[in-house]
Design a protein that fits this description.
By secondary structure, this protein is an alpha/beta fold. It folds into two domains: 86 residues, Nucleotidyltransferase, domain 5 (2-Layer Sandwich), CATH 3.30.420; 144 residues, ATPase, nucleotide binding domain (Nucleotidyltransferase, domain 5). Helix content is 37%, strand content 24%. Helix 6 links the parallel strand 9 and strand 10. It starts with a strand and ends with a helix.
Length: 254
């Protein structure tokens, strides 16, 4: 079995693969203050509660965009699981080229996502990750990563509205009853929800003009499934794409 861990700015996602099947997954809030022992005890509890024997874990593959947490997680893995540990980075065998100015700058989660999209869905493709940031990642017709775009995530934008304005409330991001808001909350929800749909639809249209109309659009992240109901631009939603990419990276580097 392989343990995969995606350390994001908002959440840490754990997944356990048995052969090709993702048999278990968990998500917890990212806490930069937690110590290695705390992460180790959390993993021990999750394994025990779900009937997984840690001795069956053959290795651990991690992507992280939070440098403060990465070494703590590695210490926890080394002490509590004591299995080979692989941290994703641009120097590994990825099965694709990173055709960008500075490959060292790309987020490790974006690397894992790009690897997963190429191997699982083909190319050319655009991967949209609706996370703390909304990222667009492009795989060209040769199967190589050529860049993309990064925008503020929808929840990040909602929090900015609340923090930077005196009279706007902190709201839950969801589809409002109508696109024309009749009150402040519905107006904010309309601007955020439908505004984000217009944002990624516009980006996809521009990418297809450059990459080709046969470009597939794959979405992941918290609101991906909700957005897919509102647009024809998204071909496939894969909520666990990063974990699948980590598994592929692990296999490519054995």
């Amino acid at each position: 079995m392989l343990l995969t861990i995606d350390i994001g700015n908002t959440n840490i996602t754990f997944g356990v693969f048995h052969d090709e099947a993702l048999i278990m997954r968990w998500r917890m809030a990212t806490d930069r203050a937690k110590m290695p022992d705390e992460y180790g005890m959390i993993l021990s509890f999750l394994f025990d509660h779900n009937g997984i024997n840690p001795s069956y874990i053959s290795g651990v593959c991690v992507s992280s965009v939070v440098p403060q947490v990465t070494p703590k997680m590695e210490d926890a893995i080394n002490y509590y699981i004591d299995k080979p540990f692989l941290a994703v980075n641009y120097k590994l065998k990825l099965g694709l080229k990173l055709k960008i100015d500075n490959p060292s700058e790309i987020g490790n989660d974006r690397i894992a996502d790009a690897v997963a999209v190429k191997h699982l869905y083909g190319y050319p493709a655009c991967l949209i990750d609706f996370g703390t940031a909304t990222s667009f990642n492009i795989i060209d017709s040769h199967g190589d990563y050529i860049g993309g775009a990064i925008a503020a995530g929808i929840q990040t934008s909602a929090e900015a509205l609340f923090l930077k304005t005196a009279q706007l409330p902190n709201i839950n991001v969801q589809r409002p009853p109508h696109i024309i808001g009749k009150n402040t909350i519905h107006s904010m929800q309309s601007g955020l929800f439908f505004g984000y749909i217009s944002l990624f639809e516009g980006m996809v249209i521009r990418y297809k003009k450059e990459i080709g109309e046969n470009m597939k659009v794959i979405a992941t992240g918290g609101l991906a499934a909700v957005f897919k109901k509102e647009t024809i631009m998204i071909d496939q939603v894969d909520s666990w794409l990063t974990l699948k990419g980590l598994k592929i990276v692990w296999e490519l580097n054995q």
